[in-house]
Structure formats: structure tokens, C-alpha cells
Design a protein that fits this description.
With 352 residues, the protein is an alpha/beta fold. Helices cover 27% and strands 22% of the residues. It folds into two domains: 167 residues, 3-Layer(aba) Sandwich (Rossmann fold); 163 residues, Dihydrodipicolinate Reductase, domain 2, CATH 3.30.360. The strands form three sheets. Strands 3-2-1-4-5-9-6 form a seven-stranded parallel beta sheet, with helices on one face. GO terms for molecular function: N-acetyl-gamma-glutamyl-phosphate reductase activity; NAD binding; NADP+ binding.
Length: 352
Amino acid sequence: MTFSVAVAGASGNAGSELLRLIAKHPQLELKTVTASSSVGQTVGAIHPHLTDFADRVFVETEAELLDGHDIVFLALPHAMSAALAKKLSPETLVIDCAADFRLESEADWLKFYKTPFAGTWAYGMPELLIEGGAAKQRKNLVATKRIAVPGCNVTAISLGLAPALSAGLIEVEDIVSVLTVGTSGAGRGATEKLFELEPTGSAEAYQVGGIHRHTPEIEQNLSKSAGKRVQVSFTPVLASFERGILAVNTAKLSPGATLEAIRTAFEKAYGDEFFIEVLAAGQFPTTVDSIANNKAVIGLAIDEQANRLVTICAIDNLVKGTAGAAIQSMNIALSLDETLGLGSLSKSDLKK
């Protein structure tokens, strides 16, 4: 069976990556691509590496042009998806790559996004431990018609800490995550801005002091894993490489916790997960390990002097952090093989 697909906001970073993955999926047929300032231009003019769809023309982002497809991906700026989604058929599978439907708390939404709360959709992180570790989020994606794709930073932190929290091996307070993030995670102009400031490369912390919009989403996820409220201090650092996230997560150990017990918890949680790799003792990932693929790669250590767990999690912010998560969750919702279209991704078809 083939499913007809539309991508709203296909001219941006997330939209471009969705098109790359759609081209790899044997049961998806792209019908419509929409944009804003690029309306009337071809996909090839904006994304020359996407040769499969080079002649497709961007049209206006209007509900009547999106309705009637089996699947609609929304790759729009935050707070723009909600109004559009209301106009789409309840029978259409709608997958939102923005933040509009991720949060369950209206108070958190109003505090961090300051626009009307639109509600909550099924959360697109299948491997996330929920109910204190008794289940995984995957079960909530089966047969759903509305999916909220997680934030990219959120994915690297959540997957990097959830097993330790669900096993009670780290404390729920004093969790600190510092992420080095590629410029594609901050919009199309971020790369040019950083290299303009310093041609040899640069890095800058942003949204410092607990104000990043992903903070409540991270705490929402990890609280579900722990079965109790979790508090996180999260600081992203934008660096002058294009794609990838390297999350360094640390947390105070619970009494009696050992590295062996922590490794057992991670292996129990992720041992049968196709898209998560826990490295052997003493090994730690780099962003290169996850570029262009849908993997999260995790390394584990204990800082004996500080009595803290250290986990390093690498993902591609545009794949596992966005478009890959969208396709993986879509596969589950449609009762397809979860890995379909995602098992043989290659760096060779990335934008040069």
C-alpha cells in the first residue's frame, strides 16, 4: 500500500530532511510541498541535493492544499501548526515537527511559548520509558492520527537519562545537561551568522539560565520515566558545525548505585531497540557516529570524585531529533515495520 504525503514548510531544515527520508521510504508518495517565501520555486532550487523531487514546486501553506492526503507533515515555526491542524480531516495522519502539541501542562506552555495552548498529541518518542519504567511511549502511538515530534535537544537528554531514573539509580534533582548543538538546530541562518562572526569557527551558549523552551518538555519526559517530578538544568551551546547534538548529562548517584547497575538498566531498556546503541565500557560517542542516521548513541561513566553519573548521547538533530523520529512514529501509527525507510540512511545523500 502507498500513502500520499504532503509536507508543509518543506523549504526549511526540518522540511528538507523529511523530503530526504520520504524519498527513502518505499510506501510513501510525495504529492505536495508547501513553503512561505519560496512559493513558486522548485525543490531543486532550494535543496539541490534532493534530486528525487527536484521538479516539485512549492505552493502556499493552506489547509485546502494539504487536506485529502493520507499523511501531512508539519515543519512550521512554533505556534503555527495549531491553527492549520484544526482545519485538517480527523482521518488524516498529521505529524507536527514543532512544539505546538508536545506539552501536557497549559501553565508550562503559556510560560515558555506565550501563545494559546492547543492541547496535547501522542508524543513521538517510542523508546521513552514511561509509567516509572513500566512501559514505553511506543504503545501510545499505535493507530493514532495525531503525533507531536519531540524537540531535538529533548531527545538527546531524555534517552540519555531515562533508564537511570526509572531504575532509581540517580537523584531526581541536580540533573545538569550541557549540549553542543549544530547550527541546523537553530534555523537556516545560524551557520552563516557564526562563520560571519569568526571564519575559523565559533561556539556560543544560548538561552542560558533555564529559559530554553525545551526545558519543560525534558522535565515532562523524565518525570514520566522516574515516576516522580524531575528537575533539570539545561544549557545548549551552538557550535559552527552543521548538524548533530552531543549531550553531556550528569546527575547525582543514588546511594549504592554502581556503574554495573546503571549499565544493566540501560541494556534492559534499550537492548532490543534498533535505533539506540549503548557503547561498551570506556567508549563514548561523537556526533560523527549519528550523522545522517536515526540512531542515538550513548556512553556511560561514573565520576567517582563528584559521585555523579555521566552519560554522553549523540544524535543527528535533523534525523533522530526530528525527521527520523517523525517517520519512525508514523510507521508505528500505520502498523508498518518501525524501521521501514530508516535502516539504510547514508551520508552520501546529504546536502553538500
